Amino acid sequence: MGKNKNKEITINDIQKWERSFTKRKGITQDEETAIKIAVFKLIEEVGEVSKAILEEQWDEVPAEVSDVIVFACKVANLAEKFHKTEKLNNVLQRKMNYCETRKYNAKIKKFDKPKNEKFK
Fold first, then answer.
1. Element (H, E) at 104
2. How far, in Å, are 15, 97, 98, 105, 117 from residue 114 at the CA level?
3. Strand, coil or helix: what is 15?
4. What is the residue-level pLDDT of the chain in tens, covering all 120 positions?
5. Which CATH class is domain 11-85?
6. Please, are residues 111 and 102 in contact by the beta-carbon 8 Å criterion?
7. Domain positions in the chain
8. Strand, coil or helix: what is 106?
9. How far is CA 88 from CA 47, 49, 73, 100, in A?
């Protein structure tokens, strides 16, 4: 992933890197420990994004958002590994397609939830 600096990074790249990083660093944990650590780290990183924004440290925001993305991918990797869930990339594509069907009501500043359309 770090070899070609001009290549755009995909969700698959991040997930693959995270799995490789965990293996290369010798991080072995049972499912319960791994998911707790991953979720707690994800929450911590979201807090760091919030703190950077509140303190108007805009140069720090991209790095903190990157940490959020990595730990979100870690959580998805654990779900895929231990529970054989659908690949994150596939779910993201469906979610984006679903979002495109929704209409925004500027008056109430909310999106509708199409009655006959469910995100699956």
1. strand 104-105
2. 31, 13, 9, 13, 5
3. helix
4. 556 677 899 999 999 999 999 999 999 889 999 999 999 999 999 999 999 999 999 999 999 999 999 999 999 999 999 999 999 999 999 999 999 999 999 999 999 987 766 666
5. mainly alpha
6. yes
7. 11-85
8. coil
9. 23, 22, 8, 18
